[in-house]
Design goal:
globular, 1 helix, 4-stranded antiparallel β-sheet, Gamma-B Crystallin, domain 1, 8 strands
Length: 91
């Protein structure tokens, strides 16, 4: 129960930022990186993402915007996914 509360607090804190936050591991673990507007590529990929209000993110499971596009509008989060490229837009 304590870990769930910590996770909820982390998500709330990241949703309050003025940037999208991505993580190298599922469940919001590993290295976290804030991402601003624009295109982003990652060879190793991101495994979880937190999108604050005011942002829209198009995520792709392959580099160069390859594969099935998933669009996330903020505020939202994905605790386990595969993202190798994305487009972040401020709305």
């Amino acid at each position: 129960m304590f870990k769930q509360e910590q996770k909820k607090k982390l998500i709330a804190e990241k949703k309050a930022l003025d940037a999208v936050t991505v993580f190298t591991e599922c469940d919001y673990k590993g290295v976290s990186t804030p991402i601003g507007e624009g295109d982003t590529e990652s060879g190793s990929g991101f495994k979880s993402i937190i999108v604050p209000a005011g942002f829209s993110v198009e995520t792709y499971p392959k580099q160069n915007k390859g594969g099935f596009k998933l669009t996330l509008g903020g505020p939202s989060d994905q605790k386990c996914t595969t993202i190798k490229s994305m487009v972040v837009t401020k709305v």
